[in-house]
Fold these 4 entries.
Entry 1:
Amino acid sequence: MKRDSRLSSVLHALLHMAEHDGPMTSERLAECMNTNPVVVRRTMGLLREAGIVASARGHAGGWTITADLGILTLRQLHEVLGEPAIFAIGNRNETPDCLVEQSVNAALDAAFAEAEALLLDRFADVTLADLAADFARRHAERRARKGVGNAK
Amino acid sequence: MKRDSRLSSVLHALLHMAEHDGPMTSERLAECMNTNPVVVRRTMGLLREAGIVASARGHAGGWTITADLGILTLRQLHEVLGEPAIFAIGNRNETPDCLVEQSVNAALDAAFAEAEALLLDRFADVTLADLAADFARRHAERRARKGVGNAK
DNA sequence: TTTCATGTAACTTTAATTATTACGAATCTT
DNA sequence: AAGATTCGTAATAATTAAAGTTACATGAAA
């Protein structure tokens, strides 16, 4: 299976949009993420339905953020994307008649449920504003390393 | 992508083997799990390399457990299977130049790392003997519900 | 020496994501 | 009003990884 990278993609897109004045087209976002504009529209369309972004057609159209980045969390975005399956490992048969397999499933399910709960809690802890701040920090660091702005 | 169900499969196989006297053939194990004998051999072969099971060819051949079920954990089996990817969700690009994407990756990676650590800890908590005991409990319960052994 | 069973390579099928093509609909500019 | 721009979306193909299948070699027991 391929891994679902849409959460990563929409985060990337939203942060670029936050750094950018005015709407960004699907075309430009697609360039940022090395993908296809149609893929961008499909994924961003889900965020639009959730009221997180808005889109406009025609000249000077494109995508804009409408949500408050200080409130929007990774968990909300995960939900907006339809809560895709988190694990690449799973039971062979979800509803087995075999009692042996039922024991196996119960043990695995319990472990996966705990891990999923923790992951979603961590997702809920991180807002888009947190990510934007982290980016700003990395950006400042890079500038410092390059010596940009150092009088000399 | 399909989900990897080999851990579930080998647990199922090991418990059936534990309940069974003498070696079990790939054919019989495959029937238990609704799969193909070659798939069983492929997967069980990894366990053999790790010294968890032994195989014998020819008449009266098949698979037998050599490990101590009281010590063998889900985590060890996960490792023996090559530590397959746990998550079906991931970063779009693992080594991006883009600072924005680096921030996104860092946040997601941190959350996934925590969830993975928890999952592996839980896997380490469960031995095959625990699963066998759980199966025995379920088996007894079913017998009780059916009234088997109830004098009447 | 025949039968049974594993060992493995090569190939096919299946399932899921992502990418692409094509075209329609709306909006802005001139 | 014409034309360019941009989203909306359906339909289809490509990609990727797991699981299944076929074929045949190897070895052990009756």
Entry 2:
Amino acid sequence: MDNKSIAQMLAETADLLEISGGDPFRIRSYRRAAEAVENSTEPLAIMAGDTKRLLAIPGIGKGMAANIQEMEARGSLPLRDELLKTYRPSMLELLKLPGMGPKTVALLWEALQVCDVEQLQTAIDEGRLEALPRFGKKLVEKLKRGIADYRKNSGRFRLDQAESAAERLELYLKEFPGIDRITPAGSLRRGRETVGDLDILATGPACAEERVAAAVEYVAAYPPIVDLIAKGQNKVSFHLRGGLQVDVRLLPEASYGAALQYFTGSKMHNVSLRQRALKRGYTLNEYALARLDTGAVAAGATEEEIYSALGMDWIPPELRENQGELEAAAAHRLPTLIEQSDLRGDVHMHTQATDGRNTIEEMAEAALARGYAYIAITDHSKNLAMTNGLDDARAVEHMRHIREVDQRMEGRIRVLAGIEADILGDGEIDLSDDVLARLDVVIASVHSLFQQSEEEMSARLLRALENPHVKILGHPTGRLLLRREPYNFDLGAVLKRAAERRVAVEHNAYPDRLDLCDIHLRQAKEIGVKIVISTDSHHTADLDNMRYGVRQLRRAGLSREDVLNTLPVQDFLDALRRA
DNA sequence: GCCGTTTTCGGCCCGACTGTTTTCAGTCG
């Protein structure tokens, strides 16, 4: 079983235990174990035989190790099977409705034998819910709306979409006199590839306790709101068109840091942080860090002073997932994360020669405007016929063009000549060695491997790595290589061989395909593979996507040294030649 | 079920909001 399936099974067991009214602390340990498994860079299938290694994972004890071994051996978890005799799997879906928690699910089951969304809808229509304790008109209304939303869209929102919604709201909030600082918190600030809802924090004189009511009214009047969910003393929650939920919190300046820390999360990071605070004689909430004995406030205005009062360095939001960052911060050993400004070149882009929209010059000017010192033009090779891919002769001709443009730029920006070549069925590259040898940047990509089995893929990737001209292993889908989904091929072996051959592995910065690569980026770092980050731009505007990819690298804990295109152009080329 | 710079037992993070109550349980983040 792959890690994701194991994690899901553990999480479901936690949900079922909660519905059954089980011990809350036992439930929490199942949740913790699920997180730990999901975040493990190593397939548990390999570790399962080694109890000691399982026990070394925080959150995994004797019982959980046995559970994991059981799942590996039989593909099932006895406690979960037991619970499913009493409860229905569809109840796990019911839990996703807003306002619906384990207690309510249990009540619906015991009183009405309702166990899924369909039956709940029927029970509502027949008016059977009102007979139950705690079920008034409003709660029933809320469930009705919840069911409609659930059917319409059940899912998270892409980071780039959430970001632009946040930016529009920010403009609106800034209009209100006395609101002068606005920060998105939550998973958006942590740079998660998808965002469940938007947490926006705001502060300024208008957010002081005695004045905040007017600002709350202003927020609630935000025109794009389609559905006001809640309006409290200093918080407004609503849905935007498209279903994105937004929580806006208006906070006094003295506790802004505490609130930012609190609402940035992640939940597990906060739980651990508060535990550490307790051990040191403090209590931490969204208003302040305070002494337990006297109640005296120790910190609150900034995040830095809170972490510092607890003996830690400030932790970049991207790392706040409770995966060892607290220990690293206490030991002053946090990595210095890469910044977008560290990048000196974008080395994967297409032009009109194949399926790009712009000319070489236009791409170069656009990159120059974004502060890059160099780019590589890497159009497709002939095997991608549908893109009008280049054969040997056209590749040489195109290279000549690129060199001319490079000359014309007169050193303002270096324009390197490259290719995004295709890996053929036998692992060969679809251009001659002669041509490949004359190019500065050869990316070998996996287009033709889409429909292949995953075992086949890894074999081909490994063969392609043996080609001396391949400098970068590309993954233009963002799904093939560095992904978190269950995969059968041995990615570790490909990364290890890439490290040995000194071939860099590419990380593409697509906003719509940021599909969960952080775990494998971490694995690449552990193995020592160099990363090249690029946008695979087909249009000058695509160059702006770099920021999304950088967030991914940061979440994986990567520093400038891990990424080749932070180097000056000559060092970058030398590093590639070492392959 | 996990875990230990007070512990191998006895703890385990914290507060707001909602709806239904008339003092609180449940949900949420």
Entry 3:
Amino acid sequence: MVTLAEVAQRAQVTAATVSNVLRNPQKVKPTTVERVMAAVRELGYRPNLTARALAEGRTSTLALMLSNISNPFYPEFVLEAETAARRRGYFLLVCNTDDNPAIARAYLDKIAGTLAAGVIVMNTDVSAGELADIAQRGSALVLCMWESAQATRALPCVTVDYTHAGGLAAAHLYELGHRRIGALLGEGSGGPQSVRLRGFVEALAARGVAADAVKVHACRDSIEAGYDAARALLSEQPKLTALFATNDLMAIGAIQAAADIGKRVPQDLSVIGLTNIHLAHQFRPALTTVGFPTAAIASIAVALTIDRIEGIKPKRDAYKVPLAELVIRDTTAPAPKASRRK
Amino acid sequence: MVTLAEVAQRAQVTAATVSNVLRNPQKVKPTTVERVMAAVRELGYRPNLTARALAEGRTSTLALMLSNISNPFYPEFVLEAETAARRRGYFLLVCNTDDNPAIARAYLDKIAGTLAAGVIVMNTDVSAGELADIAQRGSALVLCMWESAQATRALPCVTVDYTHAGGLAAAHLYELGHRRIGALLGEGSGGPQSVRLRGFVEALAARGVAADAVKVHACRDSIEAGYDAARALLSEQPKLTALFATNDLMAIGAIQAAADIGKRVPQDLSVIGLTNIHLAHQFRPALTTVGFPTAAIASIAVALTIDRIEGIKPKRDAYKVPLAELVIRDTTAPAPKASRRK
DNA sequence: CTGAAAGCGCTAACAC
DNA sequence: GTGTTAGCGCTTTCAG
């Protein structure tokens, strides 16, 4: 491995000068710069980022902690986060906790502040309180996509307006004439996605649909679980004309369940999801859903984390990205005539 | 940040002893161990992995370079690789090249041998020759899932037997009576997936189906591209009774295309994919496919990389994981009677 | 504008 | 068993 010292020797200067050439070339005489750069090229010198990190007292690595990357939302998020990080000269360490708080803690304990200068923590089973302690010790932690975290200036949270997102779904179904509506409440890591559901129920209530008219079934956040839950819910409540799922995976499972019990989507049953993962438009019928601005969330989370690393104080506790938008595709339609109230 | 020296001072020993307690406790007197551990606990000491890496001359980080993590095969792979790495005390840096060789080179240049002790390089647009040069410089590079790389002892490759995988698909369709067969040839990063196709065509040839009877259409490796390609192929060749896609995404697109032009799958058209991503069984109709042993591939690639980092020489150039297996689901059926030859 | 020197936090010989 | 010492490769004052 070629070191700074070797480059320095070859260019007839000291290591300090080489370092300057590489970092603040304007502070060095042009002819020297040229000589040093020549040596760098000839020797094929590449800075040792580990040594640099030690000397600077901070690494150029960010960690992204998530519960399970095989949930398709995360790869989409990782892609955006990695791109944002790369643009600012940072690398991204992926920490998959496998829904296991012990793994999450072990990761945090090992990397926060040493291997990774900052950590973006997606919804996990580690409590925000515990994370706040770690943040207190000086690590740049940023929560992301937590549905109900008590964000503080020391532990800010980047998220979307889940209530609003749920409300958009409600408004859409209401306007299509649906009144007998079921809901699948997802339970990912970090607890149930109940804010989304609350937003949904409240928006219906505001339109005169009683909250207890919404039949809710809880399940894990996956296609398979959504399938099972929808089957159960639809057999208990055969008159439902629409189903809201707090995330797209469950909505897709619900569509499959409907097909298997002979209900056509959207003619007999409308289904709407939340998130707008790629699969939502790739699946058939293409899923109507409320889209999250994934790229924006990721890049804000990355930017906020880097700002904290670099000592820039956050201006707010929570960063709500409000741009959830309704994406109408092929799984929602007007409520069947027979069931309409008005 | 609490340092070794502070722990040492508190425990009335030197830094070297603390280091020993943490790394080779059996070499230290039990009472000392206890005293040191107490100090560690009281101070909340956590080793600085950057400093350790610099001192040891190597990091405990692996990089995984892939073209685009939003292709659902990769998250599944990342999950397995990360788990395997974690078990051996390594962290995983995800390097997404966005199908851009310049990004790949930049990553390699920056991290190989400095930030990451080893790099697993998935199929990319950077040539194996170029990678071999980098490997020569001493970085632990391991190729993974390359379809046609000239693996060497200095640059080994972990992969599956693509020919065999293609052959399994061919045998299945043949046994169902299909003779008019189309193929979608995927073009991911790193070139066309032609070994899979060759295996498919050769296996058919071995059964007496002429190679030029297989109508091939090339396209990108995605659901959308598979959809377009299948539509085009099926309209050119309306008598096809079966379609082989060199990967599952394209197969899923093909199923959607068939539906849109009024062909029922599998009654009118059988479709078989390759890889067995999660989506293959989540999709409806559930996709018949040839499965890759993703977990095995990932863990072998990780193990091989770590072995190289730790100085253990690879025994072979190429590691072919031969366990591709046929997974029969709902998209393949006997060829329609009208079209059967025998 | 460049060089000298100290030090980031830890490890690893080698003494004692 | 434990301490001493010398780095790992780089950055960063501070002199000159």
Entry 4:
Amino acid sequence: MNTEADYLNQYDASRFPSPLVTVDSVLFTLHQQALCILVVERANHPQKGYWGLPGGFIDMARDDSTRATAMRKLTEKTGVSPSWLEQLDTFSGPDRDPRGWSLTVTWFALIAWADCEPHIASVSDARWVPIARLADYSLAFDHQKIITAALHRLRQKTMYSLLPVYCLPETFTHGQLQEATEVILGQSIQRKSLIRRFEASGMFEETGESMATGTRKARLWRRKPGVDIHLFSRNLLTD
Amino acid sequence: MNTEADYLNQYDASRFPSPLVTVDSVLFTLHQQALCILVVERANHPQKGYWGLPGGFIDMARDDSTRATAMRKLTEKTGVSPSWLEQLDTFSGPDRDPRGWSLTVTWFALIAWADCEPHIASVSDARWVPIARLADYSLAFDHQKIITAALHRLRQKTMYSLLPVYCLPETFTHGQLQEATEVILGQSIQRKSLIRRFEASGMFEETGESMATGTRKARLWRRKPGVDIHLFSRNLLTD
DNA sequence: CGAATAGTGTCTGTAAGACACTATGTT
DNA sequence: AACATAGTGTCTTACAGACACTATTCG
């Protein structure tokens, strides 16, 4: 007799060698017209003292998916949940970690700077780094490659959606969204095109309030609750 | 003294519990105007007798990435390398496999039916199933969910690239590409639009040969060697 | 020649790019 | 009032949709 129940009774996972599994996230924000990434100084070996992405091991007792692991680690470092969190890619191989064959499930996240600044300012090991300054940091493992992939994803999605709103505070103006989009894409865009898309997306509602960012007051908007992101069928900046 | 070398000397991966890690692929092809997926009958527990995606454990001695694992498993089942292979997503959680907390890195692949039919016909455990017939099969684990994600990816990419060419033989006609695209999208498309994109992509060259699929002979084309896939800035079928 | 599929010409429709214009608030 | 930023009107451009047209091959 050899039922599945018999098999499972005798099954011992520790008999099989397994890769080292981690979860890492690339969290972006915008601050002072710069696109920034959250990096953490490594307190332990391996690569102690290097800077790395926020992440770590899965806690199988608490996490019911790698999304939960990513969320838990980001919340530990920032004090809040990211506004946007999607899976990026899985990186693996025998040489990327000195402890052996390893695999990291990576996530791509966005948050408003103001939402987490108080918490980040209070912990010394996490820091926002403008992407133009990343070269000043010694990054652990293949984290530079992961960041490059995340940046590519962010720029692609910015071309066919209004993803940058997830880098903004709960209420925001057209001007702030335009600035966010321009910082991410690294070039100026047509305000008219952005506003046309903003309206067509059906994702937003006016708060009724307005705010003076420049000289004239600008209307404030928020994301409609429960409304999903809208994907456009054409890209911005199609050159 | 506590150097990284000391740390690595004392490091014992087996002390830490680790999720069960697998790699699974969704391989699509086109046959007789139907979009098909390769499924394999499970010879061992768990879920023995159910059908599942081609995949399995990482062989850390031989595979230098999960891509290599996916490629190795697909080659075992089909006899050839897929024409297209990209990472899809990672699925994880405590309940998806009865052996415990598990994680599968999934890949999305395309191949021409004729390239692997001789090999598949010779092995009894692998089978092409038209997606409309998947309901007739008892699928293992969360493989239905993985297939749904792969199908979504295939359809999306078909809207903004000529990805379906990777389901065709090395040389093919405009008509075959149109048929492939229509089968994948489940609706007819404008031949003129397809040919405009085909030319604009710069991905193809004429073989000089032609072929009678219908009454009149059609020109044969192939992918230019070393040329990457072209992504269009607008979608087809934007309704 | 007619039938069927291969392939082209060209008009329409839609949404982005460009940019001038008007509106509103601050000094 | 001057000015700077908010927001609109509208022309142009690029490319997909529609569909009629011509071309080729076979019976």
